[in-house]
Recover the amino acids of this structure.
């Protein structure tokens, strides 16, 4: 596709449940990022992939959060035992590391934990 | 600890006038700065960037100024248009740090027709 695609666009889940959020980056982009944007805040870094490997996962808040990118393209962010504080918009971005500009974000998945 | 600060939550300007959006940072390791624009229900869109080796970068109606000694940057939009109404995020990174961005909280710009 032409842009970064994120599915679902909205997800409502009950506290304690497991959720998966999917990101389909721009074709050929080797770098993929996940950010989380809480209400009234700017996006906060979660994890960065270069190819299949997580090059930097320092932003993951705790071990309930995990992300994979098994074939170096689509990535899945997984959240176990969801808590109400996990409610936020989860943004994915990708880039061609040779680009001098910023990377391209998807529209995000709005996660609401009730 | 907010390393990138956008202290004004909102700004309202008249169409045709200049909009000036300010941003301050505390981490002296930051050497590359970006501005993103965000409409509701969409992801942030890259607008303009500046390297720390420059003090100005211009792209059409948008100009970013960097004052390294003051750890301050600003985005100037002139002339402002109603379609510029959006949330603007300032972001910073350190070259070689995997391009991980640190964002400010954003400024909501409203351009009145």
């Amino acid at each position: 596709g032409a842009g970064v695609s994120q599915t679902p666009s909205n997800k409502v889940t009950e506290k304690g449940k497991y959720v998966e959020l999917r990101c389909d980056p721009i074709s050929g982009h080797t770098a993929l990022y996940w950010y989380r944007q809480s209400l009234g805040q700017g996006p906060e870094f979660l994890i960065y992939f270069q190819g299949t490997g997580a090059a930097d996962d320092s932003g993951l808040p705790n071990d309930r959060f995990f992300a994979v990118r098994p074939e170096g393209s689509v990535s899945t962010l997984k959240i176990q035992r969801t808590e109400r504080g996990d409610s936020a918009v989860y943004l994915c971005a990708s880039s061609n590391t040779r680009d001098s500009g910023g990377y391209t974000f998807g529209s995000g998945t709005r996660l609401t934990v009730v | 600890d907010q390393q990138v600060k956008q202290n004004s939550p909102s700004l309202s300007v008249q169409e045709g006038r200049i909009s000036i959006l300010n941003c301050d940072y505390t981490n002296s390791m930051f050497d590359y700065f970006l501005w993103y624009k965000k409409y509701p229900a969409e992801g942030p869109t890259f607008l303009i960037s500046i390297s720390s080796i420059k003090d100005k970068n211009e792209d059409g109606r948008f100009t970013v100024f960097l004052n390294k000694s003051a750890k301050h940057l600003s985005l100037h939009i002139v002339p402002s248009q109603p379609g510029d109404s959006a949330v603007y995020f300032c972001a910073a990174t350190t070259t070689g740090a995997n391009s991980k961005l640190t964002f400010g909280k954003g400024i909501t710009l409203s351009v009145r027709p």
